[in-house]
Amino acid sequence: MTSENGFEEIHVLWISEGMSCDGDTVSVTASGQPAIEDVVNGLIPGLPKVHLYNKVLSPTVGGEEFLAPFRAAARGDLEPFIFVLEGSVPNEKINGDGYWSSFGNHPDTGEPLTLNWWIDRLAPRAWAVVAAGTCAAYGGIHAMAGNPTGCMGLADYLGADFRSAGALPIVNVPGCPVQPENFMETLTWVLRHAAGGAPPPPLDDMLRPQWIFGRTVHEGCDRAAYYEQGDFAKDYNSPKCQVKVGCWGPVVNCNVPKRGWMGGIGGCPNVGGICIGCTMPGFPDKFMPFMDTPPGGSLSSMMIKPYGAFIRRMRGITNDTLNREPKWHHDREVLTSGYDPRWRP
């Protein structure tokens, strides 16, 4: 159903049969701003009516009842819809005599329908295509060196120049798993655009939402001041900068230290964990071995050490001064604050 400016009603077909752990779906259920329940129940102003089909969140008992809208969309009988993929895309051209991942069976032959079969039919018909999590966006864990499946991200499979039926590029929302509000905020923007109430979401050159991934972990980290002062943690119990114990925050695009994980609380560096770059296209291969000092971390921390030590000492002196009250705070019989009005009656 459409209005003059956009859709009044839209379907969200969510497949998590990519090489996946379903962690992104589970994570998204923790979102509060907005909550997925509020979106589905029509409590967010300006959005079309949303019909969500996700195997974890489905009220159906599964089987053909659950598959019905997916089959209808593949035939071209259900529109408009947003196609959400969770999990990486295996290369079915190298599957030998079997298959890597399937979603339902062919109604005539009973043979499993591969994830790739569904992508080939759903993605071109979808009004928008969204990759939920790093696996769907860039391949993630399943695409690491040595894997036998030839896994890849959705843009690797469909092509970086892919455009949906709504003329949108793939929208990547990485994270392992995806941060709940990051995904729901992005999906809400796409839905508002579908309703005609917003422009397309601005994406960077890796197809990530710019307003979410435009800054590094380090730029939003509460520990960043320790780095500037050359004060580094030697173990994970310390509140100081964790670059020397394996944190990649200075070079990773992610907003988790600012946003937190659930209800504004948590997030890797916020709770003593290092950033291992799980939102990045190069994850995990380029960030291993985890917990080793990142390349460049030793040099940068060494160069900032003398500056940081000097600044830390100067700030200590200033801090001591600022912790003393002004000398005119007294109860003697003379005013010593320097009060001297320019105008007198």
UniProtKB/TrEMBL annotation:
Gene3D superfamilies listed in its UniProt record: Cytochrome-c3 hydrogenase, C-terminal domain, NADH:ubiquinone oxidoreductase-like, 20kDa subunit
InterPro entries in UniProt: Cytochrome-c3_hydrogenase_C (IPR027394), NADH_UbQ_OxRdtase-like_20kDa (IPR006137), NiFe-Hase_small_C_sf (IPR037148), NiFe_Hase_small_N_sf (IPR037024), NiFe_hydrogenase_ssu (IPR001821)
GO process terms (BP): anaerobic respiration
GO molecular function, one term: 4 iron, 4 sulfur cluster binding
UniProt binding sites for [4Fe-4S] cluster 1: C21, C135, C176
Residue stretches making up the NADH:ubiquinone oxidoreductase-like 20kDa subunit domain: 21-188
Phosphoprotein among keywords: no
Cofactor(s) needed: [4Fe-4S] cluster
Keyword vocabulary terms for this entry: 3Fe-4S, 4Fe-4S, Iron, Iron-sulfur, Metal-binding, Oxidoreductase, Signal, Ubiquinone
Positions annotated to bind [4Fe-4S] cluster 2: H218, C221, C241, C247
Compartment(s) of residence: Cell envelope
Pfam families in alphabetical order: NiFe_hyd_SSU_C, Oxidored_q6
Subunit comment: Heterodimer of a large and a small subunit.
Protein family membership: Belongs to the [NiFe]/[NiFeSe] hydrogenase small subunit family.
Protein name: NADH ubiquinone oxidoreductase, 20 kDa subunit
Species in which this protein is naturally found: Actinomadura verrucosospora
